[in-house]
Amino acid sequence: MGENDENKDKLSVDEESKKQFLEELKNKNMEEKRKLKEIKDKKDKEEESSLKAEESQGDNTQLDNTKADITKADNDEVDNTKIEPAVNEKSSNPDTELKVKKSLVPHNLKLSIIDTAVSAVISVACLYLFDLILRLVFGYYIADMKGMYIILFLIASILYPVITRSCKSRKTLGEKFTTIPKGAD
Fold first, then answer.
1. Integer Cα distance of 65 and 67 in angstroms
2. Which of 1, 31, 63, 95 has the fewest CB neighbours in a 10 Å radius?
3. Which stretches does the entry tag as region Disordered (predicted)?
4. Does 101 score more than 50 pLDDT?
């Protein structure tokens, strides 16, 4: 019985140390969450201030452009430095660049999915056609359909764009069915 009492004391000490350990882990976890939240808040404030700075800079650029237009109308000789901000504003505006990039991703994704689906259908058709020819003419069959399908799919995905771009329309089916958004050229 003396051994049981010692084991109970050990277990109770172990349980207490486990509880203490778990409490320390919780505290560390809470502290890390707090730090992450502070970092996130700091980033949000920085982004907000940079957006405000860009807006104010954009307003100043618009005012400069308006002044340049008025000066151009008044004088025959125009200073090139006043015209450059108007020309460069469209190309350096991050909002329009972001919109173009966002609109290209779904376009390219749709194009890729259509072309991959066409390659898959072509490879399935070739697989069954090849199997049918082997069965009828030679009396053999394809034992590993999945392996043969993968080989035919790789061949079709390589040759399909090459063949379709050498034809009259010079476009794959994915390129025909998807339209490029304006401003993406």
1. 5
2. 1
3. 1-95
4. yes
